[in-house]
Amino acid sequence: MSLIPSFFGNRRGNDNFFSDPFSLDVWDPFRDIAPFPQLSRENSAFVSTRVDWKETPEAHVFKADLPGLKKEEVKVEIEDDRVLQISGKRNVEKEEKNDTWHRMERSSGEFMRRFRLPENAKMDEVKAAMENGVLTVTVPKEEVKKPDVKAIEISG
After folding, report:
1. Sign of dihedral through CA atoms 74, 11, 118, 144?
2. pLDDT over 50 (residue 133)
3. Between these two residues, 98 and 120, which has the higher pLDDT value?
4. Residues of the chain with pLDDT > 70: what percent?
5. pLDDT value of residue 40
6. Which residues contact 91 (CB under 8 A, 6 or more apart)?
7. How far is residue 65 from each of residues 62, 86, 138, measured CA to CA in Å?
8. Cβ burial 15-38 (10 Å sphere, 16+ → b, else e)
9. Contact at 8 Å (CB) between 88 and 69?
10. What pLDDT score was predicted for residue 35?
11. Highest taxon of the source (predicted)?
12. How far apart are the C-alpha atoms of 138 and 27, rounded to whole Å?
């Protein structure tokens, strides 16, 4: 699958903001236009937290790259209206009196991503794991019951 650049960032395939009914991301049409200010360093982690969402026959699987965060700094929540929320905070590194910084590029601040889950999601069986800076959230799916088909004999 190739990456297609768009107004909404690089996304896989032909997905975009309007064709993804499950996305709760907010598009800001004025984001890159002057005189609107750029995001501050404290808010940059919010924007750069990328999440992959794939659907398997058994589950919906979300993967988020959260390098440098501990699992205690990340929250995974499910809201009543089938919304998965992943949030957390990366603190700014302490500045020591005698340190001289030459460059500060790592993001800090709070982040939050929200996804509306489809009706077949088993909300009470969601599992989350964090390994090597990658958060994996697995939302099992309910089996789709095939309708019973009964053959009717034709008389005559």
Report:
1. negative
2. yes
3. 120
4. 69
5. 45
6. 108
7. 10, 12, 15
8. eeeeeeeebeeeeeeeeeeeeeee
9. yes
10. 47
11. Eukaryota
12. 26
